[in-house]
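TA notes, week 10

Several of you asked for a full example with nothing omitted. So below is the full record: structure tokens for the whole chain, then the designed sequence directly under it. When grading your own attempts, check the secondary structure regions first.
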């Protein structure tokens, strides 16, 4: 099981699975250490969640006999996995499990950030919470001086240290003359090699687990030299430099030091997107227009206000979305009877299916006045 927010390709792959009948079980489990620090507490959380899943399955009157039996088999597999893995699941703040025996789907994702515990039964995996978590893992902070390097990942709200190493770099020589000059060149070479090693490590880390923004933290005389050694792909992601004591600062103290720089970048990104939305240039706002753009697969960036929700309808066969209050009707694409839907969740899934970015607007209020949803378009 991985311990990171899923990549966009993983989210798209999961969101593209859509069955003819509701036979996908999606389970999210909150494992935040402040609430579930012990094995006994985690085991209790598992039992509570599995009991909720059983009750939900029994209460769903729309399931036929075959669907119910298949979901019971899926739940049994989820139960076995969680009861075996969760009590010792160190490091994970949450779990997401997707199971469908008939579709050959069983996937467990260990998450570095907490999620709300929930159970969903549907025709496809419930991936909207995972899309929200992508932001929570989008930042990388590299703490580097002339002999030590540390890598932290996360968001303005939380950073986790994921890697680090030290190299032996000798101290200043004070004997003077040619001996001192040669010795200082040797020390500078050792420090330069260390910074090159740190830059290469960041590139490999980005290849394994891509990040969206990089902050370089450390002494003011070191950070420019590290930035100059970064691979061009990584250098393009640098969002700023911050002075930090590399070796004696806790992850919590690092977060306090770098959070203003992170929030500045996020504020600017939101503002840029909202300004483009307001311009109307390849952009639409409001439920009806955004749903139309999603159906036409034109969305490049989906913008949602926090806690956005809207009622609508969906075609269970082709996935066509419709806005407006819950009700009956026929899909204009294939004539299938439409079903009630939460457009907030399905808008995220449709955006992922067309490789669009999804961003929750947290720092500005412009979007709420325009229906709480907007989209920047490819064409």
């Amino acid at each position: 099981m991985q311990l990171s927010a899923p990549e966009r390709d993983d989210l798209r792959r999961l969101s593209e699975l859509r069955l003819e009948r509701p036979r996908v079980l999606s389970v999210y489990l909150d494992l935040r250490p402040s609430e579930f620090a012990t094995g006994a507490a985690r085991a209790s959380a598992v039992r509570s969640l599995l009991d909720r899943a059983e009750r939900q399955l029994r209460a769903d009157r729309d399931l036929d006999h075959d669907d119910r039996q298949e979901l019971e088999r899926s739940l049994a597999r989820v139960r076995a996995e969680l009861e075996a893995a969760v009590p010792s699941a160190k490091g994970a703040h949450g779990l997401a499990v997707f199971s469908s025996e008939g579709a050959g789907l069983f996937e467990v994702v260990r998450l570095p950030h907490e999620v709300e515990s929930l159970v969903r039964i549907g025709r496809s995996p419930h991936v909207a919470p995972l899309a929200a978590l992508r932001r929570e893992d989008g930042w990388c902070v590299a703490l580097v001086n002339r002999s030590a390097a540390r890598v932290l990942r996360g968001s303005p709200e939380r950073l986790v240290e994921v890697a680090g190493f030290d190299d032996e770099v000798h101290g200043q020589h004070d004997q003077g003359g040619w001996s001192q000059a040669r010795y200082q060149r040797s020390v500078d070479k050792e420090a330069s090699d260390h910074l090159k090693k740190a830059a290469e490590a960041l590139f490999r880390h980005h290849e394994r687990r891509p990040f969206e923004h990089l902050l370089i933290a450390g002494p003011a005389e070191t950070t420019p030299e590290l930035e100059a050694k970064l691979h061009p792909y990584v250098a393009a992601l640098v969002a700023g430099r911050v002075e930090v004591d590399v070796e004696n600062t806790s992850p919590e103290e690092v977060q306090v030091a770098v959070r203003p720089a992170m929030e500045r970048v996020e504020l600017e990104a939101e503002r840029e997107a909202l300004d483009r939305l307001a311009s109307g240039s390849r952009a639409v706002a409001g439920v009806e227009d955004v749903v139309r753009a999603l159906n036409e697969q034109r969305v490049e960036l989906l913008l949602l206000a926090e806690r956005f929700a809207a009622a609508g309808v969906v075609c269970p066969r082709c996935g066509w979305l419709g806005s407006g209050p819950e009700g009956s009707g026929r899909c204009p694409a294939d004539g299938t009877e439409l079903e009630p839907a939460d457009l907030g969740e399905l808008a995220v899934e449709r955006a992922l299916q067309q490789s669009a970015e999804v961003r929750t607007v947290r720092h500005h209020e412009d979007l709420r006045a325009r229906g709480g949803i907007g989209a920047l378009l490819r064409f």
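The chain has ten helices and 16 strands. Use that as a sanity check on your answer.
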